[in-house]
Amino acid sequence: MQQNVYKPQHPIERSANRARMLISCPDRPGIVAAVSQFLYEHGANIVSSDQYTMNPDGGMFFIRFEFDLQDLDRELPKLQEDFVRVADRFEMKWHIFRASRKKRIAIFVSKEDHCLLELLWQWQAGDLDAEIAMVISNHPDMRQLVESFGIPYHHIPVTPETKAEAERLQLEKVHEGKVDLIVLARYMQIITPRFIEYFPNRIINIHHSFLPAFVGGKPYQQAYDRGVKIIGATAHYVTEELDGGPIIEQDVQRVSHRDDVASLKRIGRNIERTVLARAVKWHLEDRIIVFQNKTVVFN
Amino acid sequence: MQQNVYKPQHPIERSANRARMLISCPDRPGIVAAVSQFLYEHGANIVSSDQYTMNPDGGMFFIRFEFDLQDLDRELPKLQEDFVRVADRFEMKWHIFRASRKKRIAIFVSKEDHCLLELLWQWQAGDLDAEIAMVISNHPDMRQLVESFGIPYHHIPVTPETKAEAERLQLEKVHEGKVDLIVLARYMQIITPRFIEYFPNRIINIHHSFLPAFVGGKPYQQAYDRGVKIIGATAHYVTEELDGGPIIEQDVQRVSHRDDVASLKRIGRNIERTVLARAVKWHLEDRIIVFQNKTVVFN
Amino acid sequence: MQQNVYKPQHPIERSANRARMLISCPDRPGIVAAVSQFLYEHGANIVSSDQYTMNPDGGMFFIRFEFDLQDLDRELPKLQEDFVRVADRFEMKWHIFRASRKKRIAIFVSKEDHCLLELLWQWQAGDLDAEIAMVISNHPDMRQLVESFGIPYHHIPVTPETKAEAERLQLEKVHEGKVDLIVLARYMQIITPRFIEYFPNRIINIHHSFLPAFVGGKPYQQAYDRGVKIIGATAHYVTEELDGGPIIEQDVQRVSHRDDVASLKRIGRNIERTVLARAVKWHLEDRIIVFQNKTVVFN
Amino acid sequence: MQQNVYKPQHPIERSANRARMLISCPDRPGIVAAVSQFLYEHGANIVSSDQYTMNPDGGMFFIRFEFDLQDLDRELPKLQEDFVRVADRFEMKWHIFRASRKKRIAIFVSKEDHCLLELLWQWQAGDLDAEIAMVISNHPDMRQLVESFGIPYHHIPVTPETKAEAERLQLEKVHEGKVDLIVLARYMQIITPRFIEYFPNRIINIHHSFLPAFVGGKPYQQAYDRGVKIIGATAHYVTEELDGGPIIEQDVQRVSHRDDVASLKRIGRNIERTVLARAVKWHLEDRIIVFQNKTVVFN
C-alpha cells in the first residue's frame, strides 16, 4: 500500500438493501403489472422504474427497476428463484444486481494516461462505485502511478509474436481477479474474438472520434484533413467488428481552423476521458441493456 | 381562411386509443403494482412508464404512464370512475389525458415576433400537437401574420387605466375559446394574481435570461454590464411572484466580449424561441408535474 | 407585393462607409505592416482585424480586416487600384467588399420547408443581411408562402430526362437575377459540375448528418441503424465530390434509444436550419476563406 | 523529489523567440499600422493578431499580437525601450511577454481536491505551461498528494484570530516564490483587500455557480431550492467585491429534478475543474485584458 492513498471524499450512499433489475422481452400487456405485483408481494419497494417499448404492438419491451428489500442478501436467492415463473411466462431475459456488490474492473492501458487518470480520480472521489482490481499494460510506464493508488499493475508486453501468449496471461490475470468489466482506456491493441467471447458486452472501449466518422487509425489526423468543425469521442462495447460495437455514449467539442492535429489531440483527450468515465459509470450502475448492436441506456 | 395555410408536413402519429396518466402521492410500497395491475385488468397496455421518487422512505412518488386502451373514448369514463378506489387508497393526485384530444392554446404577444413565429411554424410542421385557438396582443402589428395561418387575432390594448378592463376582455376570450394553456410569447405585461388563479400552472412564460440571474427588466443590458460569457432563457409557469414560478426548461448560448447588447438580444432570441417551444411541447404531451414550486419533467 | 410583408424588426446597422477585406498569401514578415500602413495612408480606420497563420515559417497567411473609409463608394476604386502594388509584392489573393452592398441570394428548395422558413424569418428579422432574389424549386408547393414575402418563385421541374434543360433554365434565372450566392436549402437534387463551375465556393448546401459520418442518402436512417447518441448537420460549399466540399459549420444534438427515425428527423430539422443559417450569415459577412478544401472562418 | 513524478507527455512547443503583446488604448486611426510597422522594422514576424474595438469612433481599442523575433532574449529590452515612443503617441497600456518564460503559480486549496487535481494533471500533461511554485492550504490533507508531484506544500492554518497573521505568512511565501499568479482552487476563505492589492487581476477564483446567480455560500443548495435545469461555474479575477470581479470563463451542464444536492455537487465538480483550468490557461497564454470590470479574452 503506497503513501498517497486517501479515502474517497464523497462516498456514494448505497443501501445494503438496494437492488437493480434489468428486463427485456417481447412486448405484450401485463408485464409491468406482473413484475411490480411480484415485487410488492415479496416485500420490495420500487424506488425507481424506467421503461422503454420499441415499436408498441409487436416490438420489444425493456425495463429497469430499482427496489429496496429488507434483508436483501438473505432474501434475494428466494426472490430470484420465485421470479423464474414470471420470467418464463413473458420469455424474459433478466438480471438482478445488488447495488452494494461492487463490480470489479480491470483497466487496460498503453502509454496515454489521461483516461486512466480520470477513472482513478473519479473512483477516488467516490463517483465510480467499483473495485479497481488491476491495471494491465503492454508498457511499464504507469506502474508507480497505479501502485500509488494501491492498485496492482501487471506489465504484459505485447509483440506480434507474443500476442497469443500475452492474451493468455491477460485472461489468467482477469480470471484470477474475478473481473466483471474490462475497460480499454486507450489500450491501442486489437482484442481477439477469442478474448471477447469471455466478456460479451463487458469490454468498454473509448474510440477517439465521433463514430462512425473516422473509423480505424489516426482519427485526429483524419479529422484535421477533412476540416471538420466539431470533434468527438465514442465509448462502445467491443465486438468482433473493429469500432463497430454497440455505442454507449458520445460527446463532442467545437474546434476551428486554428486547431492543428496536436491541438485536436489535446482537446480530444478531454472528451475521451469524460465520455469513457460516463459509459463506465452507467455500466456500473446497471443502466445499460444491449439489443441488436445498440444500447438502451436508462439514465 | 387565408391563402398560405398549408397542411402540417410531418403529422404526429397519435393513436386514438393512447392515453397518458400523471400521478403524484406520498411514497409507499405497492403503488406501481396497484396501478399497473389496475390498468392490466382494464385491458390497457402500458407503452411507457417513468417514475421518480423524491427521498425514498417518507418522500413523494411521481409517475407518468402512457397506455393504449381499445375504444378509449367509450371506456375511459368507466376506467376513471374505477380508478378512484386506487387513488383514494394511496392519496393520489392524478389525471388521465387522451392523447388524441388536442389542447387549446392562446398565445399572448406584444411586439416581438420570434417566439410567436417559432410556435406557429412548429405547429404548422406538426411538431406542436395542439389547437392554436387564438392570439391575443396589446398591439395590432401581427394581425395579418396570424390570420394568414387561419388563427383568430384579438387586439386588446392595455394601458394603466384600462388594465383591469383589458384583463376582463382577455378572460372572456380565453373562456369562450375553451383555452387549456396560455403561452406568454414575450408578452411583456404583468399578469395579475386574479388572472393567474384561473390558470394555475397553465400559463407558460419565457423570461429572457438564465433565471435566477437577471430577474426583472432589461436582462440583456444587465448581462452585458456584468460581462457574462454565457446568456440564457428560462421558460416557467407563471405564479404571483415575478419571474419566480416553477422552471420548466432553460438553455444557454456562449457569448463573448465582442457581443454588444444588440448582439446579445439577437443571440438571445434564438434561445428564447427554442426554450419556449420545448416547454410548451412538454406541457402538451403531459410530461410535467409541479410540486412545491419545482417541476418534475418526464422527458 | 403581398399582404403579410412587414419590415425587419431589428435592422442591422451598416455604415455606408464600412468595408471588409479578405487576404490570403504565403506567409512572410511585413504583411500586416504593409496592409495596415496602406489603409492608414488612404484614410481608412481599421475597426476589426483577425489573422491566422497556418504553419508559421513557410506556411500560409490569412487575414480579414473591417475598416471605415470616408466616402467609400467614391474612394474604393482608387484604393483598390493602388492596392495592386501591395498585393503583387506579397502574391496575395484578395478581395474588398462593401458592407452596404447586399449580396443577392437564390434559395433552392424541394419539399421540405424548414430551412427555407428559417432563412426567410432571419432575413425578415434583419439577421441575414442580403437580398433574397428568388426561390427556385422543382416543386410548386411553396409558391404562396414565398410570394407572401414578396419574393419571386420559379417552379422548374426536374426529371431525369429534363435535367439538363432544367439546369439551363436555373442558370438563366440566377444570371438574370444577378445572384451572388446559391443556397441549397434541402434541395435534394445533385448539382452538375458544369453548374458548380459558375459558382465556385458560392453554393452552400446543408447535409443532414454530421459529415463525414453518413455520406449520401437517408442519413437519419443510417444514424438510427448505427445507434449513435448524437446527430448533426453540416453546411458546406458544394464541389464536384458529393458531400465532400469544404465544411463551413456543423452542429449536433443529443438523442437516445427512444428516438426512432421520425424523431431523429424532427430533431434534425432544428439542427439543419440553425447550421445552414449560420453558414449563410458568415458568407454574407465575408468571414470565410476557402483553402485546400477547408475553410478559414473568422468569427 | 518524489517517486511518481514523470515527464509531461505532451510538451507544448514554445519557440524561445516567440513573444506576445497586449495593448489597450483609446481607438483612433493608425494604431495597427504603427504597431505592425514598428514590429516589422525591428525584424519581428507577426504570427497571430486579434483585435477588438469597443464602439468604433470614440471607443476603446484592444489588440493581441504574437510575434517571432530572432534572439528574443537579447533584443527584447531594446525593442521595449523603442516601443515607448509608439505607446506614448497612442496613450497605450501595453505589455510584452516572452512565451518561453513560464509564469509561476501558487495554488490555494482547502479540503476539496478536484480543482487542484485537474490543474496538476493538465500541468503534468503539458497542457498548462507554467511553473507550479507551491500549493498553500489551510488544511494538511493534501500534502502527500502535492509533494508526490515534486511541489512544495505550505500548510498555513486560518482561524478568525490568526487570519491576519496567516495572510502575512501567505504573502511571504508567494513573494519568496516569485509568484505571478494565484489560483484559488476552491479555497473557501475570503481574501482581504490588502492581499488583493498585491495581485491586481492576478488572482483567479472559481465560483461554484453560474454568476451572478447564486452569489455567496451554498450555491448548489440554492440551485436545488430554485429548481434550475442547468447549473454552472464561473472563473473570475478576485476584486474587493465578493464574487463580483471580472468574469473570465463560465460553463454549464444540464441537470434535472432527479438530481439532489449531492448530485448537483458531483456534476458541478466537473464543471468547476474544467472552467478553472481554462481560465488559468488563458491567463498563462496572455490572452486576457481586463477593462472596466470585464474581460476581453482573445481565444
From TrEMBL, chains A, B, C, D:
It catalyses: (6R)-10-formyltetrahydrofolate + H2O = (6S)-5,6,7,8-tetrahydrofolate + formate + H(+). Its EC number is 3.5.1.10. Pathway: Purine metabolism; IMP biosynthesis via de novo pathway; formate from 10-formyl-5,6,7,8-tetrahydrofolate: step 1/1. GO terms for molecular function: formyltetrahydrofolate deformylase activity; nucleotidyltransferase activity. InterPro entries: ACT-like_dom_sf, ACT_dom, Formyl-FH4-Hydrolase_C, Formyl_transf_N, Formyl_transf_N_sf, PurU, PurU_ACT. The active site is at D243. Residues 20-101 form the ACT domain. The keyword Glycosyltransferase does not apply. It comes from the Bacteria. Keywords: Hydrolase, Nucleotidyltransferase, One-carbon metabolism, Purine biosynthesis, Transferase. HAMAP family: PurU (MF_01927). PANTHER family: FORMYLTETRAHYDROFOLATE DEFORMYLASE, FORMYLTETRAHYDROFOLATE DEFORMYLASE 2, MITOCHONDRIAL. Catalyzes the hydrolysis of 10-formyltetrahydrofolate (formyl-FH4) to formate and tetrahydrofolate (FH4). This is Formyltetrahydrofolate deformylase. The lineage of its organism: Bacteria, Bacillati, Bacillota, Bacilli, Bacillales. The gene is txxe 2729-purU.
